[in-house]
Every structure is written in structure tokens, then in C-alpha cells.
TrEMBL record:
The keyword Disulfide bond does not apply. It comes from the Eukaryota. It is a multi-pass membrane protein. It comes from Effrenium voratum. One of its GO terms (biological process) is transmembrane transport. It is found in: Membrane. Keywords: Membrane, Signal, Transmembrane, Transmembrane helix. The keyword Ligase does not apply. Residues 1-17 form the signal peptide. This is Uncharacterized protein. The chain crosses the membrane at residues 58-80, 92-112, 132-153, 165-191, 211-230, 260-282, 302-322, 334-355, 367-388, 400-424. One of its GO terms (cellular component) is membrane.
Length: 433
């Protein structure tokens, strides 16, 4: 059994290496550009001036991004079907992802500085405080996204009369979307594709520069609120009835802190603290950017571990999807409502909200608003299925909800992504002045 787990981990890390060799490399996360003004105006002027041609290029970029993601998911499905990744191995991989790879990804990307000084022009590694100052709205946005998601999820659970074993799971399935794996892959591929077809303005500021700012607060909300919602209240009450009130309060506080301070949350907090202090310069060379900081070797190790998070999560997702849908655990009507709420209504509502925010916030940076829009159309995060299992909600129901979303996501996410890029190229949605 241990050998099978080791083989599975080696298989996934091999996929990570292949992923990092591809031309959309995840290593671009957090790359920074010199002399970036918080009010920099960027427009998506794709190759041709013909709107129809521009839209087709945007759509092809979106489809290509989903194709990259889908390929890795299919590998995970086949690995599970062929017995390469068994049930126990999948649990081990989930633990490795949640406790090691994802925290490493979040920490390393928050304090990232491109080590590109190899005899060519190297963009300045801007202080993290400047990145936050120009992208501060993305620190607040998770509160808005999760707030609307919780309200929409609660409404869906009530309207569909969700089963007791999945009522709270329904709320979380709609409230918490993927914020790392899919957005990183999509933003990487779309940026590269648009640059290749002539979107020079888009290339001036990588959207992945802003994603770590969004990830400062979002994981905290997902893992704290998600674990709180998904825990079994009956089991908690049975245990609490046997202990004194004072001890019960202390236990509740410890439990809340434990759920709130999951490894990904701690990694985000640590990345923020390091990024805002001189400690960052010990881990990454922020001066001449030639990879010779005192502890650069330590950072590079964490960074490479983080590189495994994206393919690892997609492979785990593929393993979960290999079981197909279980409509006994999740009624079909509820599954359809979850898909509609998560992949249609949620991005539609947030597009209207962001339209208003653009007129309130003094920045017209296309790449920033692309991140803000993209995270709203993502399927349910795979971590929610893990939290559902540990919290007593139906794991099969959550897996089925995610399965149904991924059956629709290649079309819905591609269309939304193309629509977002088209909107951001329009003065009516994102004024240039």
C-alpha cells in the first residue's frame, strides 16, 4: 500500500514537472513590472481591429486554457480507472496537497520576485506594499464574492429543499470557487495567447501579478467559514453537553481557531508578513535579481513544491470525477440548481457588482479587473469536497456537484472568459479615462 502511494505521488510530481515545462508555465505567477502606476490604463487591443476577429481570438485563448486544464483532469480520471491512484493513495495526495503543496504555492507566489537579471532587461521587483496599494480592491473582493455566494447558496438550499445531509454543503458548493489551480492555468494561457496574437498592451502587466493579493484573504474565508459551516452540529452538541459551560467556550474558541488557521491560511498570512518586511530580501533577491539572496535556496525549494499544487489538485479532481455522478447522494434538481447558481448566476451578479466597483475605484488596470471577474465564474473548489468529508456532510453529494459543474465548465468558463475580455476591451465597461 505504501509503495502504491509512493508511485502515485511520483506520478503526480512527474505531471507537475511536465506542466512546468509547458509554455504557459505557472512560474509566471506574481511576476512584476517596473514603474507600474496604480492608475495605469491597459486595454486588450487584440491583433486585428475587427471586433469579430478579436472575439474569435479571445474565445480560442479561453478554449485553449480550458483544454490544458481538461487534459490534466482526464489524466487523473484515467489514473483512477486504471488503478494507478487508488482510494488510499488519493487520500494521501489530498493531504499532501492541502498541507504542503497549496501552502507552498500561496506563500511563494505572494513574495515572488522574478530572478531575470541574466544580461538582459529585467523589470524591477516592486515592493509588495506597492502591489497591494495598486490592487487593494482585490483584498476586499473576497468578502463580496463569498457574501453573495453564501446568500445565493442559502437561497438555493431553501428553494430546492436540499437534503439535511447536504443543506450546508449546498451553501459551500456555491460560495467557494476554485481560486488557485484553474485561475492560474487560465490566466497563464490566456495572457500568453493574447500576447502571441498581438495584444501588446495586455502583456505590459501580467494578470497573475494581482492574483496573490486576492489569495491573501480568500483562503482564510474559505477554510474558516467553510469548515464552520460543514462541521456536524449534532456531534458537537453531544460532546459539548458533557462538559462545563466554561470549558465548552474555551473548546469552541480553540475549534474556531483550528478551523480558521488551516495550513493554506497560515501560509497566506506568513507570505503577507514576509512580503511587507525586510525578511523578503533574505528569501528572494529583490535588488539585482540574480538569484543570490542568502536564503534563496530555501525559497526555491518552497517554490518548486508549490509548482506541484496545480497539477496535483487537477489530478485529484480527476480521481474524484472518475466515479461519475451519484444522484442518490445529490438529487438531480439540486445538482442543476447548483450548476446554474455557481456557473451562471454568480458571475452574472458579480459582473454587475464589478461594473459598479470600476466606477468607484481609481484604477483602470485591465489585468486587475480580469482577475476580479475570472474568480467569480470558477467551479467549486476541490478543497470543499475534503472539508465536506471531514465535517460530516455528504462527500458523494459534493463530488457529484463538482462533477456536474465540470461537465459544463469547459463551455461556461470559456464563454465567460471570452466575455470578460471583450467587456474589458470596451470603453462602456472599462473607461480608459
Amino acid at each position: 500500500m505504501e509503495m502504491r502511494c509512493l508511485v502515485s505521488i511520483s506520478f503526480c510530481l512527474g505531471a507537475a514537472a511536465l506542466l512546468n515545462r509547458s509554455d504557459f508555465a505557472v512560474t509566471k505567477v506574481g511576476s512584476e513590472v517596473s514603474e507600474v502606476s496604480p492608475n495605469l490604463q491597459v486595454s486588450v487591443s487584440v491583433g486585428s481591429g475587427d471586433p469579430a476577429v478579436a472575439l474569435s481570438e479571445i474565445l480560442m485563448a479561453s478554449l485553449r486554457a480550458m483544454g490544458v486544464t481538461g487534459t490534466i483532469i482526464v489524466v487523473g480520471i484515467l489514473a483512477a480507472r486504471w488503478g494507478i491512484v487508488g482510494k488510499n493513495a488519493s487520500s494521501v495526495l489530498s493531504a499532501v496537497s492541502a498541507n504542503l503543496a497549496i501552502p507552498a504555492l500561496l506563500f511563494s507566489r505572494i513574495i515572488y520576485c522574478d530572478q531575470c537579471n541574466q544580461g538582459r532587461h529585467c523589470p524591477e521587483c516592486a515592493p509588495f506594499s506597492r502591489t497591494i496599494a495598486s490592487s487593494w480592491i482585490l483584498m476586499v473582493l473576497p468578502l463580496i464574492v463569498v457574501g453573495f455566494g453564501l446568500a445565493l447558496g442559502k437561497a438555493a438550499a431553501v428553494v430546492t429543499r436540499a437534503p439535511a445531509g447536504f443543506a450546508r454543503g449546498t451553501v459551500c458548493a456555491i460560495a467557494f470557487g476554485s481560486s488557485t489551480s484553474l485561475p492560474i492555468v487560465l490566466l497563464s494561457v490566456v495572457t500568453e495567447t493574447l500576447n502571441n496574437v498581438g495584444s501588446k498592451a495586455m502583456g505590459k502587466m501580467d494578470p497573475l501579478l494581482h492574483l496573490p493579493v486576492y489569495l491573501i484573504l480568500y483562503p482564510v474565508l474559505m477554510f474558516s467559514i467553510g469548515n464552520w459551516l460543514l462541521r456536524d452540529p449534532d456531534a458537537a452538541e453531544d460532546c459539548e453537553s458533557l462538559v462545563p459551560v466554561e470549558e465548552r467556550r474555551r473548546s469552541s474558541l480553540r475549534s474556531a481557531l483550528r478551523h480558521a488557521l488551516e495550513p493554506p491560511v497560515l501560509a497566506s498570512i506568513a507570505g503577507l508578513l514576509v512580503g511587507l518586511t525586510p525578511v523578503r530580501a533574505l528569501l528572494v533577491d529583490v535588488y539585482d535579481q540574480d538569484n543570490n539572496a542568502w536564503l534563496e535556496w530555501l525559497y526555491n525549494g518552497i517554490y518548486e513544491l508549490g509548482n506541484a499544487a496545480v497539477p496535483l489538485n487537477l489530478l485529484i479532481l480527476g480521481c474524484s470525477l472518475s466515479k461519475g455522478a451519484d444522484f442518490e447522494a445529490l438529487p438531480p434538481r439540486l445538482g442543476v440548481v447548483i450548476v446554474l447558481c455557481k456557473l451562471v448566476l454568480m458571475p452574472l451578479i458579480m459582473t454587475a457588482v464589478i461594473y459598479g466597483l470600476i466606477r468607484l475605484v481609481n484604477t483602470k488596470d485591465t489585468s486587475l479587473w480580469l482577475v476580479a471577474l475570472l474568480v467569480t465564474c470558477m467551479p467549486t473548489a476541490n478543497n470543499v469536497a475534503v472539508m465536506a468529508q471531514t465535517g460530516g456532510q455528504s462527500k458523494e453529494g459534493m463530488a457529484t456537484a463538482i462533477f456536474l459543474q465540470y461537465m459544463v465548465a469547459p463551455v461556461s468558463v470559456s464563454l465567460w472568459l471570452a466575455g470578460f475580455l471583450f467587456l474589458l476591451s470596451s470603453d462602456g465597461f472599462l473607461p480608459t479615462a
